[in-house]
Amino acid sequence: MLSLSSRIGSNTCLDASSCTYSSLSLSSLVCVNPLIIERICQRNLCPVGKFSTNAAKITPTTVNPILDDSSDANNRQSQSRSSADWKAARAYKESGFIYEGKIQGFNGGGLLVRFFSLVGFLPFPQMSPSHSCKEPQKSIHEIAKGLTGSIISVKVIQANEEMKKLVFSEKDAVWNKYSSRVNVEDIFVGRVGSVEDYGAFIHLRFPDGLYHLTGLVHVSEVSWDLIQDIRDILNEGDEVRVKVIKIDREKSRITLSIKQLEEDPLLETLEKVIPQDGSVISDSSSMSSSNSNTIEPLPGLGAIFEELLQEDG
């Protein structure tokens, strides 16, 4: 719309929208173009001798401003940044680098972690066992609430821009830091985590007093005796001593054993039967005997012992 920057007459102004007189300044009123003003004046709505279309200065006003495209620019900038952050997330996933992000909050399934302009998801099962072992009396949601606002070290395990999925793992980040401190034959004090039909997961306690890594004790490595149900022996929260018998660093897996901290009962029995020098008792004269009682070995027992001594273990 346009306005006139002069006055018509002394105090008389024209309202082009209603074609009526007003006491307002003409600079606050509008008209479409000089022809309309001239036609209105021809209808004697304003003093003819006091107005000239050539003398009137027409300037743009802000009655109907042109829309500012700053919001569109901000949207484009936000999209560009988001795309760059997704690219960075994929780079972190491929390189395996550890990222330190701030915990924004949590939901029913895990923590919400800030990644530059994005927010990723850290499932509860992917958290380090140190949190639950440190405060075993608290529920996982109470622990998550206490962690909100803190910084956490994680690895990106999924970055899908199309599906808007950004998933983290704290366990993988902790493995990078502490797995080098674990070797086969090491003995740890651990705390029993979840117990399954096939075995029990044991959280390993490190010298700093925290439980950083988790290993698996297969049901066959729990005891030398035959076990019908592992829950008859191990329950969640129990503290046990375990021995590291295998480490798969590519798959981030630690295999543990409880029974190998004890002597094999079968070997103990054989040691009582077989002398320490490894010779087999086959002659009745070498055994304690008397005129009335003579103990003789079972037929073929000597050959069986000889074969057993040649077997590994």
TrEMBL record:
Q: Which Pfam families match?
A: S1
**PROSITE patterns per record:** S1
The UniProt transmembrane annotation reads: none
Q: Name one GO molecular function term.
A: nucleic acid binding
Q: Which Gene3D superfamilies match?
A: Nucleic acid-binding proteins
Which residues are in the S1 motif domain?
Answer: 96-171, 185-259
Which InterPro entries does the UniProt entry name for this protein?
NA-bd_OB-fold, Ribosomal_protein_S1, S1_domain
* Protein name stated in the entry: S1 motif domain-containing protein
Name the source organism. Answer: Citrus clementina (Clementine)
Lineage of the species this protein comes from: Eukaryota, Viridiplantae, Streptophyta, Embryophyta, Tracheophyta
